[in-house]
Design brief:
mainly alpha, 15 helices, binds geranylgeranyl diphosphate, two-stranded antiparallel sheet
Length: about 300
């Protein structure tokens, strides 16, 4: 990765962090403990991958990234709410996230549930700030679908239900790559895809963006989401807990389906390479842009294979 693109990525992260900070300086009405819990989890040192996808897609397509900042904050808010709730004892029951005690460990369960609850509408409040206002309806709908019952929440429901033997999944299904991928596409992929789409739609407010370009962004998002998930599973199996900042070896311990547990580490690595290449191929549709945002998206994608966190 070049010095140039690293400092560009860092600049974007700083912009996102400043906007997240500003958006969570609540006035009267928000109990201080709730505000503290929201800010503790949201401003914790995450990678800000999804906000970066929003800003980079927008800037790659000649949009103004300042216009996309509210949407970048919105996807990070949804992501953080999902992490807080996923860490709860009723779900994955984790005590470490982003290198710190999880929200319910630092505060308490009711506060963590409510911090997650609060981040969800806050995300849509951010979308309401998009300019020009004609963007709001479409972006609101797309983000709601991606984070809703058929995507993020649906993927999580199937994942949790299979692990815990709940409802339709009382009888454990045969381990199946198709079902595992269907879960990942919703639980992990949907928010990444919509991040890119929001960036594209926002660029379209000031630049000429075709439906085909939005489709290419989506093709990239699908492959990127799977590549990310496979490398996440490999990190769970092989990574260093202190560097990753969360508990590892959980998939094997809990007998959870993951690419390495289902296919073995070597095949999982090969699959990660395959989906990284597929992502880069989809990005090539934008190679005529060849700007810093395009180059950074390519580098971020290739970097998945070297992920340490
Ligand atoms: C509770 C509705 C609901 C959904 C939870 C986030 C999630 C869905 C599950 C977490 C389990 C997990 C490991 C999912 C795999 C991919 C993923 C979302 C990893 C965490 O994302 P990163 O690595 O995290 O981008 P940071 O902390 O860097 O933002």
């Amino acid at each position: 990765m070049t010095e140039f693109s690293l400092s560009y990525q860092e600049a974007l992260r700083h912009e996102v962090d400043a906007a997240l900070d500003a958006a969570t300086r609540f006035g009267d009405g928000c109990p201080p403990r709730l505000a503290d819990a929201i800010r503790y989890s949201l401003l914790a040192p995450g990678k800000r991958l999804r906000p970066l996808l929003v800003l980079l897609a927008c800037e790659m397509l000649a949009g103004n990234r300042q216009h996309a900042l509210p949407a970048a904050c919105a996807v990070e808010m949804i992501h953080t709410y999902s992490l807080i709730h996923d860490d709860l004892p009723a779900m994955d029951d984790d005590d470490l996230r982003r290198g710190r005690p999880t929200c319910h460990k630092k505060f308490d369960e009711p506060t963590a549930i409510l911090a997650g609850d609060a981040l969800l509408p806050l995300a849509f409040e951010m979308i309401g700030q998009l300019e020009p206002p004609k963007l709001v309806g479409q972006c609101c709908r797309d983000l709601a679908v991606a984070s809703g019952p058929c995507q993020l929440v649906g993927g999580q429901m199937d994942d949790v239900a299979i692990e815990k033997g709940i409802g339709d999944w009382r009888t454990a299904p045969e381990a199946s790559r198709e079902l595992m991928e269907r879960i990942h596409l919703r639980k992990t992929g949907a928010l990444m895809r919509v991040s890119l789409r929001l960036g594209g739609l926002i660029a379209g407010a000031t630049a000429e963006i075709s439906k085909q370009q939005l489709d290419f962004l989506d093709e990239f998002g699908v492959a990127f989401g799977l590549a990310f998930q496979i490398t996440d599973d490999l990190l769970d199996e092989l990574g260093d807990e202190a560097t990753v900042g969360k508990r590892l070896r959980k998939d094997a311990r809990k007998n959870k389906w993951s690419y390495p547990t289902l296919l073995g580490v070597d095949t999982a690595r090969a699959e990660a390479k395959f989906f990284v290449q597929k992502s880069v191929d989809a990005l090539h549709h934008f190679s005529s842009q060849n700007n810093a945002a395009y180059q950074t998206l390519v580098q971020m994608t290739e970097h998945l294979l070297k992920r340490q966190m």
